[in-house]
Amino acid sequence: MAQTIKAADAAFKVIEEWGVDHVYGYPGGSFDDGMNALHNRKDTMKFIQVRHEEAGALSAAAEAKLTGKLGVAIGSAGPGAVHLMNGLYDAKHDHAPVLALVAQVPQARMNIDFFQAIDEGPIFDDVAVFNRTATTAKGLPALIDTAIRQAYKYNGVSVVIIPKNLGWTDIPDTYISNAKNHVAPIMPEPDPAAIDKAVDLIKAAKKPMIYFGIGAKNAGPELKAVSEKFKMPLVSTVIAKGIVEDTYPGYIGSTGRPAGKPGSELGFNTDLILWVGNDSPFSIFLFNPKAKVIQVDTDSEKLGKRHQIDVPILADAKKTLVALAAKGDTLEPSDFYRAAKANQKDWRAWQDSFIDDKEEPLRPEPIFAAINKYAADDAVFGIDVGNVNINFMRLMDLKTTQKWTTSGQYATMGYGLPAAVAAKVAYPDRQVFSLSGDGGFAMMSQEILTAVKYHLHTINVVFSNQTLGYIEAEQRDDTHQPLSGVDLIDTDWATVAKGMGAKGYTIRSWDDIDSVFKAAVAADGPVVIDVKLTGAMPLTTQHMYIDPSWQDPEKVQEFVKKYQAEDLKPFSTYMKEAAEGKI
Q: The Thiamine pyrophosphate enzyme central domain covers which part of the protein (predicted)?
C-alpha cells in the first residue's frame, strides 16, 4: 500500500520540485489547507506574508521578470482572489511565468451564494494562459504540474482554483512531477538568405539604426558588435535599458515619452531600422513610417505587428546579430551616426549641468547622481510607474551587472515596493532600491511592513512632488485641459516609515543628499527616503519645440525657457555639422 499525503501537501511538493522555495500571499480561511501544507514544509519553503494580495502577485511577477523563474502567489476565496488580479495582469503583459493558487469555498458550498463564494473561473479567463478548477483531490498534484509547465511554455499566468475540502483529503503519495524534464527551448537559427538581404539593406542605407527590446536581453555584446561594424546607433525600448550600459557611446537611449531627446529624434530621421526582439505598442508613433525595417523575433506573430517590414527574420536575437556581424565589410561612420553620438553626448552634458543645482524643492538630477554614486555594481532596482520612469530612464547610468524591473506594458502604479521585496528575497546578498513617486508609493506603502517583518534591507526612495506628474503632463500637453484630480497632499513619509518600524529620512535641500544616502546604504533593515521634489515636469520629448528652422520661433523660445534648454540643439543642427565635417 502506498503512503498517503494530504492533497495540499502533494501540491506544494510538486511546486518545490520545480525549484520554488517561497511563495507570496496573505492567509484566508479558505486557504487553511494550503497554509497547513506550507507549515509542514517550513524547513524548505518560506511563506512571504505580504500585506495585500495585489502586492503578492506583483512580487511574484517582478521576481519572474528578474530571474526568469516561476513566481508563485496565493489568494483566498472571493476578495483574496480578486485582489490578485492587478499583479497577474502585470505578469501577463510583460510575459512573466507566474502560478496563482486561488482558494475556493468547499465544493458542497460552491454555486449556492455562500459566504465569500464567487464564480472565480471566469474572472481569470482573460489574464491566464491556463485556468482550471481542481475537481478531485487525487488529481490536484498533476493539475499543479500541468499549470507550471503551461506558465513556462507561454511565459504567462497559470491559475489553479482549489476548493477548500480537496486540500485536506488524503491521497496516495505517488505523484512525480515533470520538473526534471524541463529544458530551455531551442532558439531558431536565422535564414542565411535573410541575413544576406539584411546586410545589403544596411549597406545601402544612409541613416540606419538599431532598435532593440527585451528580446535581446542576452545579446548586449552582439548588439554593440553590429553597431560598431555597421556604424548604427543603438536605441532601446524602455524595458530594454541596461542590456547595453548607459555610458556606451553608441547607445543613444530609449525613445518615446520616458526617453531622452536624442533617442526620440533618431526615430523620425532614420531610413532603416534593425528591429530586434521588441513589441513596444508605442512604436507605431515613434519612427519614420517610410523607413525600411529588418525585424528579428522568435515569435512569428510579432513580425510586422508594429511597422511594415522588409526583411522578417524568425530567429534568436543573439544568433542573428552574430550572423550579421560576420557578414560584409566594416562601414565608415556616416553623418547620421556621428550626429547621433554628438547629440547624445551634449544631452548628457546638459543633464549633468543640473547635478549641483541647489534649488528647492529639489530637481531630480542631484538625487540620481547620488543613486549612481551609492548603488553597488550589482544593485537591483524596482521602479514604480510615472515620472519616476522618465527620470530613471534619463538619469540612471545602469550597468550591465545591475538589474531592474518595472511594470512595462501594463504600467501599473504601486509596482516599486512589491518589486523591491521580491528583489531582496530573490537576491538577499545584493543591494536593492525601490524608486517611486508619492502617488505610486502611497498605493502599496503597507509593503514597508513586509520589509520590516522579514528584515529586508531595501532602500525605498519616494519622490514627493505632490502631483500625479505623468498624468498632469498628459492633461496639460496632450489634451490641453484644466488639471483635474492630479493634486496630492504633502505627506511625511519618513515619519510614516518610522511608525512602521523602518528607518526614515527626509531630503529637502542639496546639503542633505549625500549624508542621507550614506546612512541609508549603511543601515540595517528597510529605509525610506522622502525626497521633496520640484513640481516642474521633465523635458517633454512628446511635444518638443526645439528647431526654429521649421517650427514657430515663439514656441521654440517658450519651450527653451520653460525647460532651461538653451544648450540643447535640434538634431538637424548636428546633421549639418556632421556634413560639414565639424563632428
A: 195-324
State the Cα–Cα distance between residues 384 and 406, nearest whole angstrom: 6
306-323: pLDDT as tens digits? 999 999 999 999 999 999
Global pTM reads 0.97
List the domain range (segments joined by +) for residue 313.
Answer: 192-333
> What is the tens place of the pLDDT at every residue in 170-227?
999 999 999 999 998 888 999 999 999 999 999 999 999 999 999 999 999 999 999 9
Does 67 lie in the same domain as 12?
Answer: yes
Residues 231 and 144 grouped into a single domain:
no
The DSSP H or E segment spanning 211 is strand 208-212
Q: Is residue 539 part of a domain?
A: no
Per-residue pLDDT tens digits for 134-167? 999 999 999 999 999 999 999 999 999 999 999 9
Give the separation between CA 314 and CA 137, rounded to whole angstroms. Answer: 43
Nearest CA to 84 out of 57, 48, 52, 117 is that of 57
Q: What is the CATH number of the domain that holds 227?
A: 3.40.50.1220
Burial class for 349, CB neighbours closer than 10 Å (0-12, 13-18, 19+):
exposed
Q: Which residues pair with 296 in a beta bridge?
A: 276, 313
Q: Phi and psi dihedrals of 73, rounded to 5?
A: -130, 150
Q: How many angstroms separate the CA atoms of 163 and 105, rounded? A: 5
One domain, residues 176 and 211: no
